[in-house]
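Feature request disguised as a bug report, sorry. It would help if multi-protein outputs had a clear separator. Right now it looks like this:
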Amino acid sequence: MGSLSRFSPIAVLSAFCAFLAASLCSRAALQIEILALRHQLNVLQRSVKRPRLSAIDRWLWVRLSRNWPGWRAAFKLLKPTTVISWHYKGFRLFWTWKCRHGRPGRPALSLEVRQLIRRMSRQNPLWGGPDPRELVRNRLGFREQEKG
């Protein structure tokens, strides 16, 4: 009876709740959690003082954070905001690379589309914003000075 008195009621209740939560999870969710925990153990075993994450480790955690809702509870090495910042950094790097290696700017329109736009704008003069010179002349009563 003395050995049972060592367990606090809170610890027993916490363990029981963890058991219930694990029994309600799907097998795939449990396998992903095991993968995540084993990965963290491997990182800790190969690190001497401070956990050092390689680019592949970061990539794994960014993927897990996108596809697994419970990743924050299983990730104990760093703050979850660090993983989210890696995701943002990867997003920025991708678009920086894409802008540098692709054709910059908006894709070119075909000649037919440009001609159609010009024809429609000529046929509908009320489209678009007003001419600033017209605003100055009509609303404020000023006239442009003649050049010369």
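(second protein starts here, but nothing in the output says so)
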Amino acid sequence: MRLREVTRRYDNDAAPAWCEALFASGLQSSDAPTADTVAEAITIAIRQFGIRGCIARMAQEFGDHPEAAAERMRWVRRLAAGTLPAAA
């Protein structure tokens, strides 16, 4: 299943869902992710947790570890901007 198809049913603008899923994924900056690994990590996170589950995991991290979560979200947004296709 293609990444756009996974997120299309949840939101007309998939970019926020991609960031939330990438945040909730196990992907780390030390993995030196490629566009393919980013797309795979997003797809796996959405399948594993669902969009709402990804959001819940992200919210929990911001509650438990706000500084680390903020840094991870900055990394996620930079990574998403550089590797994900523009939302249709």
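Even a blank line would do. Unrelated, but nice: The chain has a mean pLDDT of 82.
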